[in-house]
Specification:
globular, D-Maltodextrin-Binding Protein, domain 2, 10 strands, 12 helices, alpha/beta
């Protein structure tokens, strides 16, 4: 799985190019209206990304009016056909990412990301493993021991089947000597539902990007047992999985896509608009606030990256029995 170090190394040049990219006259103009399509229920990482984009683009005056539509289910594969049907529609973006790549494979979806127009990869985020505040599992080693003893007895709340959260659970099980095919993974269409299940003690543990759990952790309703980054993160009182003796590291990524059938000129306009947003002080402040790592990659380079991700994730899912 791609590590944070590899992530930052392989994208440094793309970020630098994005920072220096000229903004043409079309991209410099204010867009009257934009639609953001979120193929997930409200409350999750894609929804947070879409609504953060809305806030920043409004604050900077780049876009005047927004419409956000949520269509949740199956890691984005329920909403994806609806987005593909928006063929040729301008000033429309869909939020997606690594979760969708895995879900398309796991659900054997007839619609995939080759049928949309890649615009920009925006953020990377490590995952957090949390438990309810009253959980008897005080450390990740405790949870790992329970998982090794009986993989099916440890239930996990996370995003859709085959997505990043599910992949991480399988990797953890494999690393501690449990059968990943026997793990009890409960997939939720949105982050809000998963959070409710965790704080309601309906599951043993939860997995997602730390940003989705941050408020509940600060409120004392959850405890973070470990994070999937390569090193400890300032401000988060939790060890890495590797510190807990589990040789697993994972970074998630999120980006945006346009519908199929748009002109090359409009694609370039959207790329430049999102690049300008990414480079704004307002967006950089949101990255810091939400513990997101900026990993800008655009256009054809992003399209090629998605192809390589699909190949890589398919191999992992097959090895873990998830596809």
């Amino acid at each position: 799985m791609l590590t944070r170090r590899e992530f930052l190394f392989t994208t440094a040049s793309a970020v630098a190019l994005g920072a220096l990219a000229p903004v043409d006259e079309l991209a410099a103009q204010t867009v009257d209206s934009m639609r953001i399509f979120v193929p997930a229920a409200p409350g999750g990482g894609w929804d947070q990304t879409g609504r953060t984009m809305e806030a920043v683009l409004k604050q900077t005056g780049m876009v005047k009016n927004f419409q956000i539509e949520n269509v949740g289910g199956a890691g984005g594969t329920v909403g994806l056909p609806r987005f593909v049907a928006m063929r040729g529609r301008e000033n429309t973006l869909m939020v997606g990412g690594m979760v969708m790549v895995g879900a398309i494979l796991a659900n054997k979806s007839p619609v995939n990301l080759t049928q949309v127009t890649p615009i920009a990869r925006l953020t990377g985020e490590f995952e957090a493993i949390v438990v309810p505040a009253a959980s008897p599992h005080k450390t990740m080693k405790d949870l790992a021991a329970a998982l090794k003893k009986d993989a099916g007895a440890v239930s996990w709340a996370g995003g859709s089947a085959g997505g990043t959260d599910h992949i991480l659970v399988g990797m953890i099980a494999e690393a501690v000597g449990a059968d990943p095919r026997k793990t009890s993974y409960v997939a939720y269409a949105g982050g809000g539902e998963a959070i409710a299940a965790i704080i309601g003690n309906q599951v043993t543990a939860g997995v997602s990007g730390y940003g989705e759990f941050a408020e509940q952790v600060k409120a004392g309703k959850m405890r973070v047992l470990a994070i999937s980054s390569d090193k400890r993160i300032p401000g988060i009182d939790a060890p890495t999985l590797k510190e807990e003796g589990i040789d697993v590291e994972l970074f998630n990524w999120r980006g945006v896509f346009a519908p199929p059938g748009i002109s090359n000129a409009h694609r370039d306009q959207l790329v430049q608009l999102i690049t300008k947003m990414y480079n704004s002080a307002e967006w950089q402040a949101e990255l810091k606030k939400r513990d997101w790592t900026g990993i800008l990659m655009t256009g054809d380079q992003y399209a090629n990256y998605i192809k390589s991700e699909t190949t890589r994730i398919e191999a992992i899912l097959k090895r873990l029995g998830l596809a």
